[in-house]
Each structure stands twice: as C-alpha cells, then as structure tokens.
Design goal:
Lipocalin, globular, 52% strand, 186 residues, alpha+beta
Length: 186
C-alpha cells in the first residue's frame, strides 16, 4: 500500500512539474526577447536592455511579440501608422499585421521608429485585432527610445520604440491592430 501511495505521489509531482514546464514553454524568456530585440534593432544598447528589463519586471514573460516600424505625427491631435510581423510562442510566426490610431493631448512633432512590441496574455493570434487604449509620452530630439503600455481585456501590449524625429508631448489614444493596411486612423 505504501508503494502505491509513493507511486501516486511521485506521479502527481511529475505531472505538476510537467504542467509548470508547459506553462513556461508558452512564454518567451527575458534572454529570448533580448536576443530577438538585438537581432531586430541591430545592436543592444543599455537603454534598450533597461526598457526590456522594466517591462519584464512590470508584466513578466510575454507570449507574443511584433517586430515592425511606424510613423506618427501630432499637433494637439495626432495619428500613428505602422506595420510588422506577429510571432506567437508555439504558434503563428511572421503574420503580417498593421496598426493605426488617433491621439489627442499636449503633443507636437513627428517621428519614425522601429517598434518591438511585447504582447501579454494573447489567447489566440486573432484576438490581437482590436483597439488597445493607452497613454503615451514622447520626447524625441533627433533620436529617442520609449515604451508604454496599452490594455484591452486581459491582453496588454508594450511597444518599445526607438527612432528619430522631433517630437515632444503626452497624449491619450489607442492602437488599432488590423489585418489590412488602412489610412483611417479610427
């Protein structure tokens, strides 16, 4: 009888360990993301590494990311347009996605950026195609690096932007992810 109990207990512990490994296997580690961001941006900078560490400290491990580029501009009212490729851990790889969105605030200028967006708790790739409201602040004088969070339901997106331009301000708005490019920022 003791042997049966020990066997059942051992199998239960192994099952829990396997479930934990499977859950970890559905998320990107910080080292994986740093390497992918390094490959995407071309070089790791201290600012980029610090931004990634901050997002991991705040939100943990993402289960998806987007590598892309965008352009935006504002004079009180702003617009943002971008495109990139969605990669989901253990799922979709390289799916083309687009985003656009309006903003309003104390914001003036324009910038172009490469964007590496970390995505948290995305149940399925199709669930990305919605609006993510958020607050953004920018300070570009020739070049800059920034990160902000936007959330819809349980899913959070954290775009890390590095680029150039001349822009200063803070705004509220949303990012609308779509399957097709659109000039309509709404």
């Amino acid at each position: 009888m003791r042997l049966v109990k020990a066997l059942v207990l051992s199998l239960g512990i192994l099952a829990l360990a396997g479930a934990s490994e499977a859950a970890d296997g559905d998320r990107f580690t910080e080292n994986e993301i740093v390497q992918k961001a390094n490959d995407f941006f071309g070089a790791t900078t201290e600012g980029l590494a610090t931004a990634i560490q901050k997002v991991f400290a705040d939100l943990g491990q993402p289960n998806a990311y987007i590598e892309g580029e965008e352009a935006s501009g504002a004079f009180v009212v702003g617009v943002r347009y971008g495109k990139g490729r969605l990669n989901v851990k253990g799922g979709v790889q390289g799916m083309q996605v687009y985003w656009q969105g309006p903003s309003v605030g104390f914001d003036v200028g324009g910038n172009a950026a490469k964007v590496f967006t970390l995505i948290y708790d995305l149940p399925r790739a199709e669930d990305l195609f919605q609006r993510f409201p958020g607050v953004d602040g920018s300070a570009y004088f020739i070049a800059g690096l920034g990160v902000n969070y936007a959330r819809s339901g349980q899913t959070t997106v954290a775009p890390i932007r590095t680029g150039g331009g001349l822009r200063l301000g803070a705004n509220v708005g949303y990012i609308h992810f779509t399957r097709e490019a659109s000039w309509n920022p709404l």
